[in-house]
Amino acid sequence: MPSKRSRSEPPSGSSEGENRSSVRRSSRERAAVQRYVAGPAHGDSYSFETARFHIVPPNGWHRFLWKMGCSALNTLKYNGELPPPVAPCPCWLLPSSDEMAVRIAEIQPQLAAAGWRTLTCDAALVSRLSNKQRLREHAEELGLLKHLPAHYPALQGAAYPAVLKGAEGNHGSNVHIVHSPEEALEIVPGGLDDEWLLQELIPGQVEYSVSLLVDDGKLLDNIETAYEYDRPEYVWPNVEELSRSSQGSVPPRFLAVMESFLPGFSGICNFNYKVRKTTGEICIFEINTRVGADLACDVPRPRARALFEKLASLGALQPSARPQ
């Protein structure tokens, strides 16, 4: 009979030397589903202990989450179908994609009935924050446009080079650096519409990713990771990473800006930003309303575990007793 794997060992099929970039921020893959039948939640051969956190759908993060040592799994093949699988109680269901974040918000009652714990909010707010076009509208309503890259309403008259990006997309998809209106038209022959936006290009070799634990708009925890790249103008992942560090702390004024974007929001989210060289102020590229690859893969495992444990502590509190 095979021996039981210890918590400190990496899962079989992976090694410490395996290239982390092959799964970090990788595009998620959906398993082909012909017919979904609800049943108990379970993982794969890595899932030898009772899960406390299921991050869904699977996208290659499991071996990094497993190393946190808090029973966080990325093996459950669930994409929001109804009825949901029965939770291995008590267990949190967390999104690994923006689409899944919206879906979890939409089906909160059904998930609760199946025994799942969720930290989420109104689905329209989740969708608005994660959609790059609607994020700008959100910022405008809150008087926060100065914290986003400048927006160009038309291809003509924009300052080039500029960033052309799709309103939806994960992990660098649908993002292009363009140097002229003609180059942009090669990508969007019909010009800009609700599905595409043109933004100011913010140069700089260092980009920051901040994972936040948020409950009703209040920041409960934050972890920042700084990534240094080999050139100042790039679209990830088409760039070489020189270094990364999660040892720094987010300036309080930057945290205040992030919190100002999140009234009413609950969940784990991720802000990507650079610091403007001319002013020293934050410039936010996007908000991901999900567990980010920085938290899942790059943050030191004990620190990432601490954030998940803080989330778990919310499960023992009634909403009225949560931190205000």
UniProtKB/TrEMBL annotation:
Region entry Disordered, spans: 1-31
Molecular function per GO: ATP binding; metal ion binding
Domain ATP-grasp: 132-316
Compositionally biased spans, kind Low complexity: 1-16
Biased composition (Basic and acidic residues): 17-31
Xref: SUPFAM superfamilies: Glutathione synthetase ATP-binding domain-like
TM regions (residue ranges): none
Signal peptide residues on this chain, from the entry's feature table: none
Keyword RNA-binding: no
InterPro entries: ATP-grasp
Domain of life: Eukaryota
Name recorded for this polypeptide: ATP-grasp domain-containing protein
Natural source organism: Emiliania huxleyi (Coccolithophore)
